[in-house]
Structure prediction request, 409 residues.
Amino acid sequence: MRNNLYVLKFGGTSVANRERIEEVAKIVISYIKKGINVVCVVSAMGDTTDRLISLAKEISPFPSEREMDMLISTGEQVSSALLAMALHKKGYDALSFVGYQVGIITDTSHTQARILKIETKKILDALRKKRIVIVAGFQGATEDGEITTLGRGGSDLSAVALACCLKAERCVIYTDVEGIYTADPRLVKGAKKLRYITFDEMLELAFLGAQVMQVRAVEVAKKFNMPIEVKSSFTRKEGTIIMGKTKFIEEPEVRGVALTENEAKLTICNVPDKPGIAASIFTELAKNNINVDMIVQNVSHKKITDISFTVPKNLLSKAEKVSQKIAQRIGATEVLSDCDIAKVSVVGVGMRSHPGVAAKCFSALAKRKINIEMISTSEISISCVVRKKEGKKALQVLHKEFNLDRIKK
Ligand code: ADP
Ligand code: ASP
Ligand code: MG
Prediction:
């Protein structure tokens, strides 16, 4: 471990304008003054990435993925150069780099690339010369020098992967909230900031909709056991530490709740109920790279049934086309799609040893007359699909039911 090295990541809101970039420069300098070496990773300013994507879609509804990467990787280049300039103005030696300049090598999956390796020599050389290194987040390049991006929210992954490869002491994610809360503080008023959370719980919360950390970034942190601190670049208060173990002797049953409206439901109606049908439906969807989340098969009447499943909303039209083809082949009558759903989830490693968490969830929703349309569980989470207009209320109900507004840390 390089004891004196921190990787600091600043998200879009933290570098949204000139004033914010100058504030970030002050935060970076506060580490340097303590004798800590710093590698910064920055996101694009504010909603730059969204705006670049909309611009591309105005020109072409289906832009080439290579050109999308050429376009959307530029946002992070702008903010990293501006942060270097802000540090120069205050008399500090800083150098900004885009992903390929610091050897972030990825596979060739444009817009969703995976990091294969990071050649750290250039960064280590600059650190040895006592320079502050700034890296444009969210991007890398293939072995052939083609620019790639790492999926939405990918600057988190850039920061964590760099921290792991550089053997940094810690990775600090600066964002626009004070840490990881028991629920999105923008949706649940009484949400409480957690002092600690385990990698597993953070992974599950992120996967189930808490966008505060990118899922893949938490996966990498867990794999390399890299502690992450999530804190605000606005208030400088103590944040949340994400790590392997918490200091509880026994874990509480539920640590947080999450909501996502990013899924849609498809129903294949009047499917013959016989062996091999589910296999053929889900094999075909998998072949088309459509990841299915929840699956429900109705009780069969006269050997005919309905099968419903959820898919990410951005894959809905592809999933509909594939499902219609399958429906024809297996003799089902129609395919219905439904975008008006939300998924609420409760997460906690303690539920492994606390019986009755599912019953408590379902009763709480029933008491508020919220109908549950689909259910799925993992070892440490329970998720329910409800009508979209009831999603936020369902989240608040579950937050209250598990007394998350009263927890101490
Ligand atoms: P950044 O631009 O810094 O990467 P993001 O917008 O990606 O920031 O993530 C921060 C946002 O995540 C917060 O503004 C908050 O609304 C949302 N969020 C969702 N769930 C949680 C949670 N459990 N704790 C904290 N923030 C959450
Ligand atoms: N700018 C990219 C995005 O908006 C990456 C990031 O912010 O982490 O997804
Ligand atoms: Mg983010």
In short: The pocket of magnesium ion (ligand 3) is lined by residues 11, 153, 156 (CB under 6 Å). The domain at 2-176 is CATH 3.40.1160.10 (Carbamate kinase). DSSP finds twelve helices and 20 strands in the chain.
